[in-house]
């Protein structure tokens, strides 16, 4: 099985094309290949598949084998993968990528001097403040600045779905926050029926927020695109930023815009190829995939 390793702000993915459908043993493969000691190492395994409603479909399996509905950094990587490998007409710099949680998402490509993709602007769709992925049982209302307790410590959170679930918490200093202690406790808090990605955020100015993330199914990652979108939504709802702001993550910056007219979120950031390779048959067999 041929693969390409890509990364978006250090959020890294093993991208596999050429399959007709999601392999039966995708979860086992993800666990094995994403392992940073015994595998290739990545935050997720991404399959680029045919689509009836878009140029391609993306399916993402987290490093723990769970499937995510959506992934902002991976969609930029997939856009680069299909364009740079000429899997779409090279005259087109506007494509659509279907995701499980957010339908067909339009992406705009910016090309470098070498004609390859350097940056991608993604229409991430509308944020959802209540629904199946975020807790609606609390007073029957969208959950904004609501108390949540983990092992005796009190936080306040805003729940946002970007197709996948997010728990956004404002803290005094996101860069110094003890992610490893509180991230896993909040990821699995009973408020979140399908677990959650947890963002710890400090607003630095009306156009800049700093964020650290504990991702569902992957733990501490260097960046989370959907988490940056959820962060901006929570910050705007709290009256702390404008509707366009830079979100700084450990791996770099994303520009996020929440359009007032159409309620959609736009995310702009880079994507890079790291290397290509091939997983040998005996390794696939160990994961039950051959
Ligand atoms: N890193 C991602 C989100 C990946 C999926 C996430 N771990 C989940 O389970 O929802 C991003 O860039 O959005």
UniProtKB/TrEMBL annotation:
Organism name: Paenibacillus chartarius
What's the stated role of this polypeptide? Catalyzes the stereoinversion of LL-2,6-diaminopimelate (L,L-DAP) to meso-diaminopimelate (meso-DAP), a precursor of L-lysine and an essential component of the bacterial peptidoglycan.
Gene for this chain: dapF
Q: Gene3D superfamilies of this UniProt entry?
A: Diaminopimelate Epimerase, Chain A, domain 1
Supply the EC number(s): 5.1.1.7
Which InterPro entries does its entry note? Answer: DAP_epimerase_AS (IPR018510), DAP_epimerase_DapF (IPR001653)
The terms under GO molecular function for this entry are:
diaminopimelate epimerase activity
What is the protein name for this chain?
Diaminopimelate epimerase
Q: Where does substrate bind?
A: 11, 62, 72-73, 164, 197, 215-216, 225-226
